[in-house]
Design brief:
Length: 294
C-alpha cells in the first residue's frame, strides 16, 4: 500500500456490502477495480440475519440450525474468489473480510462509520422483467441511502472497464454541488457531463436564462481550472427522470452521480421523484452522494 493514492481525493477505503447472491459478483468486480485503481483498502462485509441460517450452512434441519463454521471469513473469501479473474482474485485475497450477524443495514452502517470508509459499493436486489421499472434496490439499500453519510455506489451492470462516460445530474442546489465536487475527486481524469433538466419548452430566452443559472451555479463554489475544463454542461428540456434516462441511453453512459439531502424524502428536489423511482429507471450504475452534515 502506498503512502498516498494515485490522485488526491480518490477513495482510500472501499467497503463492499454483499449478500453473496448470484448477482453479487458485479458489485464485487467493480469494488475490486476501484480499489486496485486507487490503491485503496478493500473491506468485504457480509451480514446474515440473526433469525436466519448462517451463510453456506449445510445439513441444517428445521429443528436445529447448523452452527456457524469457526472460520467463516475464510470460507466467504474462498467463495467470492471463485470465478474471478486471477488478478482480481489475488487482490481479494488481500482484502479484509468481515462476516457479521444482525440487521444488515444497521451492521453496514456501524462498520462504515467505525472504519471511516470513503465509498460503499453494493448491488441491486434483482430485476423485474417486462416492466418500466426493472430494478429493485431492496430494503437494505434503501435504508442505507437514508442513513449513511458516505457515498453509495449501486452497481447494476457487469463492469467491463473503469467508468468513462459519467453523467452528473444537477438541480443547481448545494447537494448537487457537493456531488459534482466529489465526482471530480473520485474520477480525476474523465470528462463529466453536467446535466441540467428543465421543464421549459426550449424558447431562446428561457434557454439563455438556464445557461446563466448554470454558469452562476459553477461560480458559486471553488473549482480548480483543470476540473472546470473537464465539465461538459448540458441543458435539456423535459421532466428530469425521463431526461436523465434518455441521455444515459443515447450517450451510453455507464454511471450517473446524484446528490441528495439525505434523511427524509430523497432526491425529490433533484429529479422530481423518490430515489427508489429514479434509480429504478436508470439503465446504468448510480453513485448517490449525501450532502455533508452542517
Amino acid at each position: 500500500m502506498t503512502e498516498t493514492p494515485p490522485y488526491p481525493g480518490t477513495p482510500r477505503k472501499v467497503l463492499l456490502a454483499t449478500d453473496l447472491s448470484a448477482r453479487c459478483d458485479r458489485a464485487l468486480e467493480r469494488a475490486v477495480g476501484i480499489a486496485q485503481r486507487d490503491d485503496a483498502q478493500l473491506i468485504i462485509l457480509h451480514v446474515f440475519e440473526a433469525s436466519g441460517e448462517p451463510p453456506m450452512a449445510q445439513g441444517s434441519g428445521p429443528e436445529s440450525p447448523a452452527p456457524r463454521p469457526p472460520d467463516m471469513p475464510a470460507l466467504v473469501k474462498q467463495r467470492i474468489r471463485r470465478g474471478l479473474r486471477s488478478d482480481s482474485a489475488d487482490f481479494v485475497g488481500k482484502a479484509t473480510v468481515l462476516v457479521e450477524e444482525g440487521n444488515p443495514a444497521e451492521v453496514i452502517e456501524q462498520i462504515a462509520m467505525s472504519e471511516h470508509v470513503d465509498l460503499i459499493v453494493t448491488g441491486i436486489a434483482r430485476e423485474r422483467p417486462f416492466t418500466s421499472r426493472p430494478v429493485i434496490l431492496g430494503e437494505t439499500v434503501e435504508r442505507l441511502l437514508r442513513r449513511l453519510p458516505a457515498p453509495i455506489l449501486i452497481v447494476r451492470n457487469r463492469p467491463l472497464a473503469a467508468y468513462q462516460r459519467i453523467v452528473v445530474a444537477t438541480d443547481l442546489s448545494e447537494p448537487s454541488a457537493h456531488a459534482l465536487q466529489l465526482a471530480l475527486r473520485f474520477f480525476p481524469v474523465q470528462s463529466l457531463h453536467l446535466l441540467l433538466a428543465t421543464d421549459m419548452q426550449g424558447e431562446a430566452d428561457d434557454h439563455g436564462a438556464r445557461v446563466a443559472e448554470l454558469d452562476g451555479f459553477l461560480s458559486s463554489f471553488f473549482l480548480p481550472e483543470g476540473d472546470r475544463e473537464r465539465l461538459v454542461p448540458v441543458i435539456e428540456p423535459g421532466a428530469p427522470p425521463q431526461v436523465v434516462r434518455e441521455f444515459v441511453q443515447r450517450h451510453g453512459a455507464d454511471l450517473v452521480v446524484l446528490g441528495t439531502r439525505g434523511r427524509g424524502a430523497m432526491l425529490e428536489a433533484l429529479l422530481g421523484s423518490t430515489a427508489k423511482s429514479i434509480l429504478a429507471m436508470l439503465p446504468c450504475d448510480a453513485l448517490v452522494v449525501r450532502r455533508p452534515a452542517q
